[in-house]
Amino acid sequence: MKLYFAPGACSLSPHIVLREAGIDVALERVDLAKGEIVASGVPFKQVNPKGYVPALDLGNGNVLTEGAAMVQHLADTHPDAGLAAPAGTVERARINEWLTFLSSELHKAFSPLFSSASGEPAKSDAIAKVTGRLAFVESVLADGRDYLTGPRFTIADAYLFTLANWTGPTGIGLEAYPSLTAYQARVASRPAVQAALEAEGLLQAA
Fold this sequence. Notes:
- The protein has helices at 12-20, 67-77, 90-110, 120-141, 155-165, 178-188, 191-199, and strands at 2-5, 26-31, 36-37, 55-59, 62-64.
- By secondary structure, it is of the alpha+beta class.
- The protein has two domains: 2-81 and 194-199, Glutaredoxin, CATH 3.40.30; 90-189, Glutathione S-transferase Yfyf (Class Pi), Chain A, domain 2 (Up-down Bundle), CATH 1.20.1050.10.
- Strands 3-2-1-4-5 form a five-stranded mixed beta sheet.
């Protein structure tokens, strides 16, 4: 497999899942500003016409281009890793519920904060949305659970960890969210997560 990524972007989520599952993967860094693959200079849209990371080349001409689809596929094809409950169970539906929330509500709420085209009103509105979503996550984690759906790390946790890290560069911070802060430290301490962060040059930033 080959993962096309940008350091610290949402591609970190499938990167973590790949390492948690013990899957051998080649990494191709993408310069999103230039829209090209760093090592080759090839336009990234030749790999993913959408133009954004992640993209996961499964081989045999199959390329997945949405992180939530990637992590579910990886969990399903590597069930021994225990990163998701079996399809058709309520436990799996809960994981999918989190993936949907993180993708549609939290991830997208951050987007204006990374856009140079966003004015102050748009950024203020985005911060309000992000902090509201984070407050909800905080309320869930405050019940003492280790991970989003209980005692086990799942593919949803790889996604939340990635998004919560964005509170650093956006200046939002995690000071108001003690349970989420503890959660981030707990996830960051996992060997596979450390390996992904190191590979992306993010150990100091995480």
